[in-house]
Every structure is written in structure tokens, then in C-alpha cells.
Amino acid sequence: MSRDKNGINWVAFRITLVALFFATGAALLMFRAYKLAITESDGLTKKAEKQRTRVITLESRRGLILDRSGEQLAASLEVNSIYARPRRISNARQKTDVAFRLAEILEMDVKEVSSKLGEDRPFVWIKRRVSPYVADKVKKADLDGIFIGSEYSRFYPLKKFAAHAVGFAGMDSKGLEGLELYYDDYLKTEPIPVTGQKDALGRPVMFNLMGATPVRNDIYLTLERSIQHIVEKELDEAVRNEQAKSGLAIVMDIDTGEILALAIRPTFNLNTFHEALPATRRNRAVADTFEPGSTFKVFLAAAVIELERIAQGETIFCHNGLMRYNGADIHDVSPHKLLSFEDVIAQSSNIGVVKLSEKLTKNEFYRILQDFGFGNTTDVDFPGERTGSLLPPEKWSALTKANMAFGQGISVSPIQLICAFSSAINGGNYYWPHITAKISNQVGETVLDFQPRVQRRVIRKETSDKLVGILRKAVTVGTAKAAFVPGADVIGKTGTAQKADPAGGYSRDRYVMSFIGAMMGAKPRLAIMVMIDEPRVYRDRTGGKVAAPVFKKMAEGILALFGSQAPVQDGSIIASKGEWSNPASAPEKAVSVIRGPNPGEWIVPDLKGLDMRHALDALNTMKCDVSIEGFGQVVSQKPKPGTLVREGSGITVVFGGGAL
User: Fold this and answer.
1) What is the 8-class DSSP label of residue 21?
2) Beta partners for 321?
3) What's the predicted TM-score (pTM) here?
4) Domain assignment present for 468
5) Is residue 411 assigned to a domain?
6) What would you measure as the largest C-alpha separation in the chain, in angstroms?
7) pLDDT single digits (tens) 421-452
8) Are residues 518 and 627 in the same domain?
9) 318 lies in the same domain as 234
10) Residue 4 domain-assigned?
11) Nearest alpha-carbon partner for 88 in 148, 143, 50
12) Strand partners, 54
């Protein structure tokens, strides 16, 4: 053993030193292993999972909107979208080549495509929701870094039908207007999360769905498509013939508050809503207010009867058509000397109702108008409802009560007016107005059920019955004779209102012509409101001459469908009061889509008897441009079955509900 002069054994010292070094290293390794395996295990596991796993989301299918018979008014179809992964395109020259070829296929500006490909991002949309024909051309081009994805596009098979009621959803299936917006929380579904496992080079090797597919809710409406079709047809004709600025019509069940039809003109195609002006897309039934004119005399009459301020057989002196009142001239269209209370309303005398208003105090009149819902929202299930304007009595001038007696100095929305009118003639009950019948999930379970709901009693039944008699007289011998339907029990009231002039006062040549009435002998009893805004010819024209005839045509059309005492038919509106049929199931028919002899060619199948969804599924396979007419089941098609067509060709399919 080697020792130095001091007696130190250096060999043993070195061995000990090395042993201590390795012992320390081993201890450190054990400590580190303990930390990795025990104390830091969860954090490191999550970090590793994050590095090798990518979570993406896929858009899920938005719920359907259907009419009361189950006909689809809004659906979601699977479509193709083009996206790029710019980092996978190796160099600038290649990006330029890809941009030129892609721009040509997608009919886009080259600069726009180049700009998107130049972004330093792992993913970028190039063009969303392209036709199957275009997607197939992109696929065949096989461009580096360019991919085809699937998402859902909102589709409105009946185009303009009930456009303002249904509303529309935007690019990301988010509701923007109408019922699409109001019930967006129910219609939308959560995106589907998908995990993607990557290898060491970052390449995807496996994808798995995380959890169950989101549950979809569908909305069933009270809207009845046959009535809606009649209302739209007659309103179109009226606005066109009168060369009017706009028109509006609402049909409501007076005993439930259900909205059976709502039409507004001008209208727009829901599938191309972005091309329409915001004013055209606005739901004027709830978002616009107007001075109601003589239709408002109904509510003055209700107040006078309810408070028993008119004696049996009492007559009103109407000054032969001109009366000076608190510094203002009050005119009648037709001069009268003496009129009974009933004839004041039936003949629509402004002077007569001003004198009747003197029988009410400000607070009495105001309270009853509030009970009828004026000055407040109705809480109808549409977005953007306005309250209208009803000043409190302390702000009334010497003329306010008199002006409101014939519908000036107050503004109301169309939905307010028809709700108030319905409560005035149905026995005095104010029903909550609604266009939604129920919300159910995709397995048929009811999520929400919207039953008729009385919000309050406005007037006594005796008052309502007397008012119905007066309004019946207005149609038979009064200003509303043009609304009379032979053989039917029809009541109503005309309205002719000057529009306010922005410069002050009232315009001399801008009017709103209106009529509101009801078919009391029908089952159910239906109220119809018609409003024609600014007809071109206004002189010697009144609501009785412009709007009442439109009401008559609508009423005749509806009665022809169901009859004034029609028996209950399966699926008909007459059956309603809470019973709803399920959507018609697809017919027992197999449709084979056969390829043609050459690439890109197809043989048109026989679609007759298919419902809309199954017909569209078949045509989507063929990558054709489809045009739809009517509703129901396929009754004809063009080209005929067996015709050889190329991808991208146009095909027209007519469904058996009548063309819209």
C-alpha cells in the first residue's frame, strides 16, 4: 500500500472520493426519480399529453324550425368548405402557383387567396360552404396545403316563405334575426370536440370523438302554412296593385293567442339574406309602431261600455261633419247630424268619438288602454319588440284624450293592436301572443310546451258581446262593408291614419290604411289584421276601400280551406288546442343514385313521393344545383327521371303543397 511521507494512503483516498461521488449521483438520481414518479407525475403527464394530443372542434347540426304540421322551414345541410395549412406549402413560388389555381377554381380574387396563403398560421379558411361541384374540382386539383372540410350550412327550403317570422342564422350558425335569434340558445348545439393523436413529427395518426354527440332541439311553430300561403299571396297582390311602400298582415287565434300567419312586404330570400337591405329584413310586426287611426275607436267604445257611460238609446250630435273643439277642427269623412252610440263606431265618426271621450276621465281611459296592453310589450316570442307610446295622463294636453279617441297621439305596434282587438272580442281575456308551439329534442321528447295562457281579464264578457255586435254592424252597414263575406259571421273596424310629418304636424299625402277584423263563426275564431302603408293613390281612399277588401280575400281563402264550421281533419288547423302531428316520415322507397358512363355524369333518379329532406340528400350526392318549389312531397321534377346530367347542372323539384 502506497503512503507518502506524511502517512496518507492516497489510493484509498481516491477510492473513497470516487465512491462518494457515485453515491451522491445515485442519491440525486433517486431523488429526481422520486420527484418525476411521485410529486410531479400529474403535471408531466398532462404536459406530455398536450404535446402529443391536439383537440379540435367540429360544428354540430343546428336544430330545425318546423311549422305546425312538421314541414321544415329551417334546416342544416352538410356542406364543403375549403381551408389551407400555409406552413405546409414549402416556398413562395409554390404558394403563388397554388393561389392562381385555387382562385380560378373558386372564382376568387388572386390577391385575396395569396394573402390568406401568406399568413403565418397553421389553419386558415379560404372559402366556406362551396357547392359539391366546386369541392370536387378542388379535390381533383390535389393542391399542396389545401384541404376540404365539412360543416353545416343553414338552409331555408321555402326561401321567402314566412321570412320575417323565421329569421336567419349567419355563417357560424348563430341566430341573427327572427326566431333563429330569439331561440338561439335552444337551436344551437355545442361544438363536437375531437382529439387528434400526433407522432414524433407532428403528423396526425388517430382521431377520436370525445363524449356523446350533442342533443339537438327542434322548434315547432303555431304557424299554419296553408293560411300563411293565402295571406302572402293576397298581401303581395294588394301591395302591387296599390303601389304601396309596404304591407303587413297577421292572423291570430283570438281564443289562444296563437299566431297562424305573419307576412310582411317587401320580403327577401332567407338563403341570400345578406343581399337584402336591413329595412327589408326588419320584422315590422313588432319593431315598428304607427298611429292606428280609427281602428283605435274599438277601445274607446270598450271603455264607454265597460264603465257604463252610455245610456240605452242615447244619440250623439255630430255637427254635420265639422266641429270646433279646444281650438282645433274635428272633421268627419261623411257628415252626420245625429248618430246612435253603435253608429258612431260603425260609421267611424271622429266627432262622435270625441264627444264620447268626454264621458271618461283621463285616468279611466288611460287605465283601460293599459289593460289592453298599450304602452307595454306583449312579450311575444320575437326579438326587437317595441313598446309604442302611451303618455301618462299628467302629460296630456287639452286635446290628447280627444285625439286618442280616433287614434292620433298614440303609437302602437301591429302585434299590440291585434292582441288588444282579440281580447276585446273574445270575451275580455288577454292571451299571451306566441308563434311557438313546442320545443322538442331529436328523440321526440318535449323540452318546452307553450300552452295558451290568459294574462289578465281586460273587460267583462257582457262588454265584449256588445262590442262584437257593434263591429258586426260596421261590416254590414258601416264603413267596413267591403270586408263582408256572404254566409260568414265577420266583424271588423277600418282605419285611415295620416302619417306624422318630420317637419311637424301630419302629412297631406302619406297615409296608413288598415283593417282589423275577425271570423267569429269559424273554428277556431280567427282575427286578421291588414295594413297597407302609403298607397300611391291616397285621395278618396280609406282603410275601408284599401285594406278591407284584402281582409275579405284572405277570409274567403281561409274559409274555403276549412269552412266556417269545418269538421276536425287530421293535421288541420281546426284540430289545434295543443295537439301536434309529428313530421311525416320518409316514404318506403329506395332511391338509387347511379353514375353515368363518363366521369362527372349522373342519371337523374325518380324522386316522386319523397319528402324534402330525402330528395335533397339524393341530389346532394349528384353535386347538382337544386331549385325548390312548394312544400310537402315531390310531385314533379325537371329533368325527368333517367335523364343524363353533368355535375353542377340545375334540377328543379316541385313539392305538393303548391308553388310559393
Assistant:
1) H
2) none
3) 0.76
4) yes
5) yes
6) 149
7) 999 999 999 999 999 999 998 778 899 999 99
8) no
9) yes
10) no
11) 143
12) 196
